[in-house]
């Protein structure tokens, strides 16, 4: 359980600054530090168990269907990273307490920092590939927030965006790679994956998987050619740079390569790709570190270089190389975090990070000068510092490796070159800032920072020295655990300062001599490089982004160009291709079941349907005729349902047909009566061909399905309808009981559509035509007497029928949907026959609440079963006997159906009655638009433009 | 019988699709309605075509498949809600833009 807490505590810590920011900065900083400190202590408490060789694992099912488990592990590698992440994180909190200006939102800063810390701890401890990826993405997001913390600065925004784009794209590649990896290993559990290295190496998909995973690792760890985001991320506040860009986030890629080492390393491909990329990165970064004039820029490129070094070691992959890599991860984190924090102190106290404005700071800041010099010495690899030890190990491994075969001398040569450059830029950093006289005065007169701000640097520098002096005592235990986690078996090694005079030592000495000489001739070097036009990575990156956006826009414009017709054309073409491909794959269009017999009535019905459809399309320019033809189709569809044993459908279709026609007629009143001829004949033929071929595909598919015997799950519903749902009408029981949740969703959609239409009609200004399409003035007799009297007579009758249909719905064709539609139609008829004003007086209530109450009743019925301890929407029913009436059934499904009924009535009336009211004084207006309406009432409605 | 039914579905689909490719809102709405008839017929037929076998328990044997029927029943009602929404959107677009073209662009008024 403690494992879960170690992972969760930093995540909970995100809330702490948010809650305590009001209490002042000191309190907030302290409170923020509590949870990570606890997590650190808990990590340390697990060390004895780890030393005993215990397997520390935690696992809880999260989404087992997706192979995603909340699984954590604590092994040596996680321990090493947890110490770095939590330990340096605590120092960073202390440092940031002094670094941020008074008026800056420190609460937000701490919250982002904790989010980042939590995601890093998550990566380090994940025991599941997908969980690891999840935390990986969380680091990308939280680092975006941290880099862009000073969001008012353009370079911060651009740097943050660049980091997110590069690492986010890498993250997607990584997801693909990890999914492949899990598939190859047959499990997403880290332990299983690490154990199946042989299977993975033998898999033909190995190169693809490796490429994708490495893409993720290289983008995260700023390896060439993806390194360019890191220098631009220096726009972040310095605590962020010290934390993310030296100790933690950029190490995530390295961590991933180390973590997955047993599973994916061990091939020729791995060694060559990883060590080559590493060596190029190392040299490239070192060279630019020597050329930069910005303090943080130098550190950023030197970080790139050191990350390259670690990558080379992982590429070499021998046990001792792994050990050296792990050791250098530790060493680099300590000296580079110290250097970043010193740079931040210098920036903070002088107001600049430009080398030419700095110089001679030794006098003003003696302690900082000493600390920085010591940390830089560690970076350069001076003996008696920790950097020396890991660098010697690097040289040894570079000399010993067989990678690159006959060219294997290349690696030590390049490694020595890297050493030279590293010495040169370290010397330059220290000398130019503290010893060389300044050429220009800095903006602020420098002095030492508050002591506590320097404390984190002091702690880290002391670590550099102590580890350098007593490596065996300080680092052996930790490295034993960590290397065992990566290699799989205990490694016998001995860390010592003195190995005698050997080739690596000579390489080191050479590096010092040439490096110092290189710095001495630095001016010539700079003059030499200035001949070449520099490439600004940010410009290139942004130009690529803009060009991609432009191309995408052009492509879209070329394909559809904001035209709905072309858009639909592509959609149907896509459907045609997909459907066609499906059809080609079946061998025989007519299935085994064959055709049933035809009769004359069927022929007539099909003929009428086809005629109606074709006529609707053919007469579409004469809209009223087209609409009448459409109603023919609707009626015959209802008859088709009736013919093929679906009485419920027939009733529904019939009543919906009535409502739809009234709606479309009303709408047509406000729209042009005719469509102008605008499609060219060519376009018409093209559209007909497209529609016709898709129609053929649909017909073939339909025929192919109907003539085959299908396996249906319906027997379940038929058998359980009576015993389980208490109704004989299976369709209705499915609607209100078996699939009640679907129905609830559907009436909700219906109610929302009604509300949306109500809002759309609000303040709608319409052209009200004074005559029909042929120019005939509307009849003055607006409410014909016959219709009026019939509608009055029909109303109670229709309501009675709808009540009857509603009540019998559970056992006979009928139910809430149909009854609701019948009621709505009866009321609409009243509106049509007597006019809105007359109906409004008698039906003076808003319809929106009716629909909402309907949905509410249905939902509450469902919730009621919760109260009784059953799942949502479980129905209950029973039989009761009353004198005179006899035995009858009461079911909760009836209550649910009542909700359906009300929702249908409310939504339908909301749509139709409100549309009808648009032309009258009763039109829907909100309070805000009331004035507007009054204003427009003064001016008569606009006339039809044509 | 199945062949005839499938042909009907196909013809209705084709006519509906043709109308959705028109350039004015009203024919597109009519086309969508036509298309929804075709889709409903198609879905309905997935349970096979049964004569005299309404899915009401204890009316003999050879019932029609009730599941597609339940699905189509709600589809009909939702289809109506969507038609209503689209047609009123079209009215609104006409009142805002001044024409009933589907692309919703304002006409250049001379």
From TrEMBL, chain A:
Question: What Gene Ontology terms for biological process does this UniProt record contain?
Answer: monoatomic ion transport
Kindly give the InterPro entries that the UniProt entry links to this protein.
CPA3_Na-H_Antiporter_A, MnhB, MrpA_C/MbhD, MrpA_C/MbhE, ND/Mrp_TM, Proton_antipo_N
Q: Which residues form a coiled coil?
A: none
Q: How does it sit in the membrane?
A: Multi-pass membrane protein
Provide the Gene Ontology terms for cellular component: plasma membrane
Q: Which Pfam families match?
A: MbhD, MbhE, MnhB, Proton_antipo_M, Proton_antipo_N
**Region annotation Disordered: where it falls in the sequence:** 926-946
Cell membrane: present as a keyword of the record? yes
User: Could you tell me which residue ranges the MrpA C-terminal/MbhD domain spans?
Assistant: 609-673
According to the entry, every stretch annotated as the NADH:quinone oxidoreductase/Mrp antiporter transmembrane domain falls at 126-400
Pinpoint the Na+/H+ antiporter MnhB subunit-related protein domain residues. 786-909
Annotated GO molecular function terms are: antiporter activity
Which compartments is it annotated to reside in? Cell membrane; Membrane
Q: Which UniProt keywords apply?
A: Antiport, Cell membrane, Ion transport, Membrane, Transmembrane, Transmembrane helix, Transport
The family database entries (NCBIfam families) matched by this protein are listed as: PRK12648.1
Q: What is this protein called?
A: Monovalent cation/H+ antiporter subunit A
Automatic annotation (TrEMBL), chain B:
Which Gene3D superfamilies does the entry mention?
1.10.287.3510
GO cellular component terms attached to this protein's record: plasma membrane
Q: Which Pfam family name is an example for this entry?
A: Oxidored_q2
Q: Say yes or no: keyword Cytoplasm present.
A: no
Q: Which InterPro entries match?
A: CPA3_antiporter_subunitC (IPR050601), NUOK/Mnh_C1-like (IPR039428)
Q: What membrane topology is given?
A: Multi-pass membrane protein
Predominant subcellular localization, coarse grouping = membrane
**Localization terms from the record:** Cell membrane
Q: Which UniProt keywords apply?
A: Cell membrane, Membrane, Transmembrane, Transmembrane helix
List all membrane-crossing ranges: 6-21, 28-50, 70-91
Domain of life the protein comes from: Bacteria
| NCBIfam families, per database record | PRK09094.1 (NF006573)
Which family is this sequence assigned to? Belongs to the CPA3 antiporters (TC 2.A.63) subunit C family.
Q: What's the protein called, per UniProt?
A: Na+/H+ antiporter subunit C
Record organism: Vreelandella boliviensis LC1
């Amino acid at each position: 359980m403690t494992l879960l807490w170690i992972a969760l505590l930093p995540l909970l810590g995100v809330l702490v600054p948010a809650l305590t920011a009001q209490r002042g900065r000191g309190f907030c900083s302290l409170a923020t530090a509590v949870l990570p400190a606890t997590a650190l202590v808990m990590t340390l408490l697990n060390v004895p168990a780890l030393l005993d060789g215990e397997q520390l694992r935690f696992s809880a099912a999260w989404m087992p269907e997706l192979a995603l488990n909340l699984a954590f592990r604590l092994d040596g590698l996680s321990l090493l990273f947890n110490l770095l992440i939590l330990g340096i994180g605590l120092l960073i909190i202390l440092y940031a307490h002094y670094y941020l200006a008074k008026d800056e939102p420190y609460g937000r800063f701490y919250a982002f920092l904790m989010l980042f810390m939590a995601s890093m701890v998550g990566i380090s401890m994940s025991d599941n590939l997908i969980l690891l990826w999840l935390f990986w993405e969380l680091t990308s997001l939280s680092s975006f927030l941290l880099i862009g913390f000073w969001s008012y600065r353009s370079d911060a925004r651009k740097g943050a965006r660049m980091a997110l784009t590069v690492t986010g794209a890498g993250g997607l590649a990584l997801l693909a790679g990890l999914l492949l990896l899990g598939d190859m290993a047959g499990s997403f559990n880290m332990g299983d994956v690490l154990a199946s290295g042989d299977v993975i190496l033998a898999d033909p998909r190995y190169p693809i998987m490796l490429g994708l995973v490495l893409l993720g690792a290289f983008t995260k760890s700023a390896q060439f050619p993806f390194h360019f985001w890191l220098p631009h991320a220096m726009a972040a506040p310095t605590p962020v740079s010290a934390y993310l860009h030296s100790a933690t986030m950029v190490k995530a890629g390295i961590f991933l390569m180390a973590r997955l080492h047993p599973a994916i390393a061990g091939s020729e491909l791995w060694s060559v790709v990883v060590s080559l990329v590493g060596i190029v990165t190392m040299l490239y970064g070192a060279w630019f570190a020597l050329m930069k004039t910005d303090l943080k820029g130098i550190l950023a490129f030197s970080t790139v270089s050191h990350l390259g070094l670690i990558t080379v070691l992982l590429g070499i992959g021998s046990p001792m190389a792994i050990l050296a890599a792990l050791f250098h991860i530790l060493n680099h984190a300590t000296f580079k975090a110290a250097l970043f924090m010193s740079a931040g102190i210098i920036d903070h106290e002088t107001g600049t990070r430009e080398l030419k404005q700095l110089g001679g700071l030794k006098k003003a800041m003696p302690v900082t000068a000493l600390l920085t010099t010591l940390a830089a010495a560690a970076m350069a690899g001076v003996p008696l510092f920790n950097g020396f030890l890991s660098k010697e190990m690097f040289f040894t491994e570079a000399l010993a490796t067989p990678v690159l075969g006959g060219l294997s001398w290349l690696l030590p040569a390049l490694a020595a070159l890297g050493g030279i450059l590293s010495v040169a830029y370290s010397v330059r950093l220290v000398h130019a800032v503290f010893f060389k006289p300044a050429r220009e005065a800095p903006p602020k007169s420098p002095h030492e920072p508050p002591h506590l701000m320097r404390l984190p640097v002091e702690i880290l520098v002391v670590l550099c020295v102590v580890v350098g002096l007593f490596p065996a005592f300080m680092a052996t235990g930790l490295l034993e655990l960590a290397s065992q986690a990566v290699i799989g078996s205990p490694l016998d090694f001995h860390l010592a300062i003195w190995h005698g005079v050997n080739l690596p030592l000579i390489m080191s000495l050479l590096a010092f001599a040439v490096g110092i000489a290189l710095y001495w001739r630095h001016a010539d070097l700079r003059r030499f490089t200035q001949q070449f036009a520099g490439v600004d990575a940010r410009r290139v990156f942004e130009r690529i982004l803009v060009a991609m956006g432009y191309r995408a826009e052009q492509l879209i414009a070329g394909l559809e160009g904001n035209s709905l017709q072309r858009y639909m054309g592509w959609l149907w073409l896509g459907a045609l291709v997909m459907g066609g491909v499906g059809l080609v794959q079946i061998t025989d269009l007519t299935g085994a079941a064959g055709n049933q017999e035809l009769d004359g009535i069927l022929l007539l019905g099909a003929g009428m349907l086809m005629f109606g459809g074709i006529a609707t399309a053919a007469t579409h320019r004469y809209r009223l005729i087209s609409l009448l033809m459409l109603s023919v189709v609707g009626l015959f569809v209802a008859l088709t349902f009736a013919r093929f044993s679906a009485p419920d459908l027939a009733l529904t279709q019939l009543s919906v047909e009535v409502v739809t026609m009234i709606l479309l007629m009303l709408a047509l009143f406000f729209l042009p009566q005719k469509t102008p001829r605008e499609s060219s004949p060519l376009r018409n033929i093209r559209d007909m061909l497209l529609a016709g071929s898709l129609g053929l595909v649909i017909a073939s598919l339909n025929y192919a399905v109907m003539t085959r015997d299908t396996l249906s799950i319906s027997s379940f519903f038929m058998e359980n309808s009576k015993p389980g749902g208490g109704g004989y009408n299976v369709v209705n029981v499915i609607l209100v009981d078996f699939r009640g949740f679907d129905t609830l969703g559907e009436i909700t959609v219906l109610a929302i559509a009604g509300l949306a239409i109500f809002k759309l009609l609000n303040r709608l200004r319409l052209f009200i035509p004074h005559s029909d399409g042929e120019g005939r003035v509307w009849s003055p007799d607006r409410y014909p007497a016959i219709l009026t009297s019939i509608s009055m007579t029909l109303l109670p009758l229709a309501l009675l029928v709808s009540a009857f249909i509603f009540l019998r719905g559970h056992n006979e064709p009928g139910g809430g949907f149909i009854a609701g539609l019948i009621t709505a139609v009866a009321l609409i008829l009243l509106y049509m026959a007597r006019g809105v004003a007359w109906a409004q007086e008698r039906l003076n209530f808003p319809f929106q609440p009716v629909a909402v109450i309907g949905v509410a009743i249905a939902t509450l019925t469902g919730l009621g079963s919760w109260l009784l301890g059953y799942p949502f929407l479980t129905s209950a029913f029973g039989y009761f006997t009353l004198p005179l009436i006899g035995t009858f059934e009461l079911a909760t499904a009836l209550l649910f159906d009542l909700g359906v009924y009300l929702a249908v009535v409310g939504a339908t009336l909301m749509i139709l009655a409100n549309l009808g009211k648009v032309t009258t004084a009763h039109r829907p207006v909100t309070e805000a638009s009331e004035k507007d309406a009054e204003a427009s009432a003064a001016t008569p409605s606009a006339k039809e433009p044509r | 019988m199945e062949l005839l039914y499938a042909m009907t579905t196909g013809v209705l689909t084709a006519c509906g699709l043709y109308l959705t490719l028109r350039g004015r809102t009203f024919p597109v709405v009519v086309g969508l309605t036509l298309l929804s008839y075709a889709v409903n017929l198609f879905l309905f037929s997935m349970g096979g075509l049964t004569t005299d076998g309404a899915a009401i328990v204890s009316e003999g044997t050879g019932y029609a498949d009730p599941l597609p029927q339940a699905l189509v029943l709600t589809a009909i009602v939702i289809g109506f809600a969507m038609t209503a929404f689209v047609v009123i959107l079209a009215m609104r677009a006409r009142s805002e833009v001044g024409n009933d073209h589907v692309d919703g662009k304002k006409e250049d008024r001379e």
